[in-house]
Amino acid sequence: MYKLIIYITIAIILVYVVVRSFKEKKGFKRKIAKKTRTEKILKIINVFAWIIFVGTLVKSGIILISFIITLFNPEAVVFKDIGVFGVGTSPGTYFYEIRESHLWNYIFYVISIILWTLIKSYLAYLIIKLLSKINLIHPFSIEIANRIVKISYTLIFIWGFSFVVNFFDKWAALAIGLEPQFEVRGEFLFIAGLVYLIGNIFKRGVEIQNENKLTI
Amino acid sequence: MPIIVNLDVMMAKRKMSLNKLSQKVDITIANLSILKTGKAKAIRFSTLESICKVLDCQPGELLEFID
Fold first, then answer.
1. Inter-chain contact B43–A211, Cβ cutoff 8 Å?
2. How far apart are CA A47 and CA A131, in angstroms?
3. Are A211 and B42 an interchain contact pair (Cβ–Cβ within 8 Å)?
4. Is the pLDDT of residue A83 over 90?
5. Rg value, chain B, Cα
6. Phi-psi region at A177: left, alpha or beta (left = phi > 0; alpha = psi -120 to 50)
7. How crowded is residue A6: how many other Cβ atoms within 10 Å of its Cβ?
8. Is there a smaller number of Cβ atoms within 10 Å at the N or the C end of chain B?
9. CA-CA distances (angstroms) from residue A9 to A52, A53, A86?
């Protein structure tokens, strides 16, 4: 049921973005323009960013609704099949046992998962905003460079927050003798480092572009 | 900047306006203005060649080094 909702939402967003990309901003006239490879790649990345943004928002919404349901009806095993811990896992009974044993552990733990998912959707939002500002004629601008650095800081924050989620997971799971399910995501730190490096190279690109502008 | 561009001096000597120079060397007025006011960071040899050809002068007459 939840998967169906997610798939339908993603399909609607995909159709909307593809149709919009064929329409001019000023009107509905379709110009036959020669698209460079870079522009096509940027459009595809934009579509994926929208998918991730909507997907993570829907996921956090589903977890929130499931959480509210289980607060009033602990018997409802509603967390299955939404990929809370990863593909192919069924966290329904895991959350049920935590809910049954320690209510406050359960509350803190699920809220931290919801927040972690929301931060990931914020990251996708930043990527969408970045892609909307890119101008391929003058690609190097200080605004774009700052946004790239901001994305790297958000990635570091996601990595740091995964420690918080991991802490609540261990706190909740070990109290009742279960194996913790949530792992700290080291890959976010690696990607944050790469993105930060790219941001700084971009800033150098801005300097070179500005110098080039003043070359007669 | 230690290197100054005496474009306005040369233009006055040759009695040429910025508009006319811009048309003849095929550089925008904005860019010529940047050159004239000393805000340019660099100049291409091709640009220098065009300006010298139109103003009938040497690069040394256009560019001056002040320590």
1. no
2. 10
3. yes
4. no
5. 11
6. left
7. 17
8. C
9. 11, 11, 20
Residue range B3-58, CATH number: 1.10.260.40
Are B35 and A216 inside 8 Å of each other by CB?
yes
Smallest CA–CA distance, residue B48 to chain A, in Å, is: 9
Q: How confident is the model at residue A32 (pLDDT cuts 50, 70, 90)?
A: very low
Instruction: Inform me whether the pLDDT recorded for A54 exceeds 90.
Output: yes
Neighbours of A115 (CB within 10 A): 14
Measured in whole angstroms, how far is the alpha carbon of residue A27 from the centre of its chain?
A: 32
8 Å CB contact of B39 and A216: no
Q: What residue type is assigned to position A193 of the chain? A: G
> Which residues in chain A are closer than 8 Å to B40, comparing Cβ atoms?
214-216
- Domain definitions of chain B by residue range: 3-58
